[in-house]
Amino acid sequence: MSDSSSETTGVNPGVDPEPDKEATREKGPLAPQSSRGLTAWAAIGLIAALLLGGTAFPDTILGILADIITDKDTFAAALRLSVPIAFAALGGIFSERAGVINIGLEGLLIISAFTAIYVTDITGEIWVGFSGGVVASVLLALLFAVVTIEFRADQIIAGLAVWLIALGLAPFASQVIYNSPNTPTVGTTRSISVPVLAEIPFFGALFSASPSVYMLLIAVVASWYVFERTAFGRWVRASGENPKALDTAGVNVNRVRYAGVLISGVLAGMGGSALSLDLGQFTGNGATMVNGKGFIAIVAYLFGNYNPIGAFLATMLFAGLDAIQTVFQLQGIGLPQQLIRVIPFVMVIVILAFVGRTRLPESAGEHYESGEK
Amino acid sequence: MSVIDHARRVLERLVAASATERILISSAALLLSILLGALLVLIAGRMTTCTVGDAVYYFGTGFCYNPVLVFDRLFLGALGDPFSGAWSPEGQFSVTLRETTLLIFTGLSVALAFQAGIFNIGTQGQMVVGGLATAVLVLQASSVVSGVIGSVLLIPFGVVVGVVSGGLYGSIPGILKAYSDANEVITTIMLNFIATGVTLYLVSGVFKDPESPANRTVPLPEYAQFPTVIFGGRQDFSLVALACGLLAIGGLYYLLEYTAFGYDIQTSGLQPGAAEYGGVDAKRTIVASLTLSGALGGVAGSMYVMMVLGTFQSGLPAYGFDGITVSILAGNNPAGVAFTALLFGVLKSGTTVVQFATDVPPQLVGVLRGLIILFVAMPEFFRLVGQRVVDPGSKPVATDDGNLEATDE
Q: Per the UniProt record, which residue ranges are transmembrane (chain A) (predicted)?
């Protein structure tokens, strides 16, 4: 217990527990890895059993479920639904790996979702609107970065503030401009279909999708590449794990952290813009159309162990569930909508209960003060 | 015990040193948020359209919304226009006190968890669960008793239902944190979504009032609701409920300052390592404080059902999230919650007055809430500003121990 308390509260903020570092690093990622692996294997096993059961008894509920899971449309829907979550999760990885826990992803999604529609509405250009959403998200992320890095605000509370500001600001602006928390509809992006490849059963869904899905796939691979193969990726990781070493190596820690938070703004902004432009409308009632996607994104990257590809797969798991429930509804299979809606949230809790402690980057959540001032 | 003694001294020094500073920072945060809010109103006033006669003019430019009028209505309107000469507690003032009562409970809920070093964002969900449980169980019980005896029995019963159901719901993130080390910020946010979804399902299905198109339960009989005492009846306000809120403030203050359990909570919040070394059972304290925090959130739900609506209807107002602001602004101090709950009661009640008197969208208060949290979260900003004002030549970075401890909480 004592090791976790020193990390989360910073009992000795000035003293770096060097000798312990190696030890925690060795057992840190391994301990949750096993239970995380267990959950992943359990999920894979469950799906395999379902498919087997489905083929054996095609006319039962198992058969129907197996049909739905292997359906190309379900896969396409899962990809579409995962766009905002996965983009936000990628953003969260950049920010948190750099040492700034960004719990305000939800707010970044909300502000970009609204701005994308607003800018599209006034310019008539979907891609200008898309960029507008990204800019709005980056500006809010910049505010968050200044507040946490420059003014040493508590990252969790400031992130919460970012969410609440966006949650108030987007419907406020919509009300001022459109006289309703929901915007009118604008044009949506057309899907791009690759000839021949789109005909492949199931995986063809990857080749007949909206541009945002392709952008997401590129972003996932690019993020992985940045972290694993570039100097900047190493700086970001060091900034979160061992800022002192990075500082000693002559790299400005705060500048790297700014970059991490701003990249999270860009990525979350792309997710938010894609979300609203996919439907051509922003709805701002209650929890808005974003409705917790930013928080699911946080769980997705925790579950994916800060790996862009892992986070994407975790997102696909949540989004796949959502896609299946939509099909269920269309086919009129029992189970009330309100209950199915909460399944992803329940799953997050169950996963957290099993995976338990997620190993944060060593210095995430702590302000870094350079020695030379 | 020396570790505990040391922790106690740290705690006392911190409280004494930071109380004035906290009040100053909170006031500055509030003022700055209002100024930014005024700016936002001006900008919004440029983006909408209105007739020339309705516009106000500042610096030679016309604006559709008048920030002075907005904040005049927001504050004076919420207090029932005390300077108008015809003030009566029956009007908007009762609404303000009603909102204050609910915010006291949600604010205390967040504050108690914060004192234990736990960030309970789940007060909203705990309130929703407490509210539905109260509406359903009190309705069941109300067929057994009636009249004055009914009130005397049913209202405390409803509060107990809120305590138990909210407490149980609050214990879930507590157990998850204590025994699986699951981050409470994430679990409580998830539990909020779950509470909203499941209660919507229940209240649109099994518990639905067949005679209403809305998703709500069968309304409670009059005798199962908080009685009007002296004033406030027209605005669904009961002084009895406010008295309960003040009692809760006193009770929590006593618990934290004068009991062994409260002491465990505070030391766990300030110095978890030292607390455990000194013999505090960390897991038990986590579960207990989140359960108690959830219980306070549950009471807010009972109060909402038994005082305001008289039924449970899906889509409860965001008292739980406002509770976070109330608590943070009060420095998580129960006594401070009394003032900040009143302040937010004014903001919430004033929103409807603003809506009546102007065209400014009511979501403005949501933005103010976020801004206030943001500014309170960055005390360093105000310290820098303060230093520049006091001594313009000094080095603008403060790094003594006290500051580090204060910002690290």
A: 38-57, 77-94, 101-120, 126-149, 156-178, 200-227, 256-275, 295-318, 339-356
Question: What are the boundaries of each domain within chain A?
Answer: 83-355
Q: Return all residues near B313 (Cβ < 8 A) that are at least 6 apart.
A: B203, B214, B215, B216, B217
**Cα torsion A49, A51, A53, A56: sign:** negative
**Residue B165 in tokens:** 């159901």
Which residues, listed in sequence order, are joined to residue B57 by a DSSP beta bridge? B62
Per residue in B178-188, pLDDT tens? 988 888 888 89
Residue-level pLDDT at B185:
82
Contacts of B77 (CB under 8 A, 6+ apart): B92, B350, B353, B354, B357
**Measured CA angle at A281 (ends A280, A285), to 5 deg:** 160
Amino acid at B54: D
Please name the residue that has the structure tokens 């059993």. Answer: A49
Q: Please, how many CA atoms are within 13 Å of residue A340, restricted to the half-sphere of its CB?
A: 17
Rounded to the nearest integer, the mean pLDDT of chain A is 81
Complete DSSP assignment for B262-312? HHHHHHHHH-HHHHHHTT--HHHHHHHHHHHHHHHHHHHHHHIIIIIISS-
Higher-pLDDT residue of B385 and B409 is B385
| E-state strands within A103-211 | 192-193, 208-209
Q: Is A162 on the interface with B (CB under 8 A)?
A: yes
Per-residue pLDDT tens digits for B334-344? 999 999 999 88
Residue position matching structure tokens 């904040």: B71
Q: What's the rounded mean pLDDT across residues B372-391?
A: 78
Q: Helices A61-70 and A72-97: crossing angle, nearest 10°? A: 60
A358 CA to chain B: closest CA distance, Å?
Answer: 8
Among candidates A9, A169, A352 on the partner chain, residue whose Cβ is nearest the Cβ of B187: A352
For chain B, what are the domain ranges? 2-377
- Beta pairing partners, A14: none
Q: Determine the pLDDT at residue B89.
A: 80
Give the model confidence (pLDDT) of A132-153 as tens digits: 999 999 999 999 999 999 888 8
- Whether residue A161 and residue B371 make contact (CB cut-off 8 A), yes or no, is yes
Tell me, rounded to whole angstroms, the distance of Cα B372 from its chain centroid: 13
Distance CA(A82)–CA(A87), nearest Å, equals 8
Is residue B252 scored above 50 in pLDDT? yes
Measured between alpha carbons, how far is A325 from A347 in angstroms, rounded to an integer?
Answer: 14
Q: Please tell me whether residue A364 adopts helix, strand or coil conformation.
A: coil
Report the DSSP beta bridge partners of residue B272.
Answer: none
Architecture per CATH, domain B2-377, reads as: Orthogonal Bundle (1.10)
Tell me what pLDDT residue B190 has: 87
Nearest-CA residue of chain A relative to B318? A286
C-alpha to C-alpha distance for B341 and B331, rounded to whole angstroms: 12
Task: Give the distance from residue A203's alpha carbon to the nearest chain B alpha carbon, in angstroms.
Answer: 32
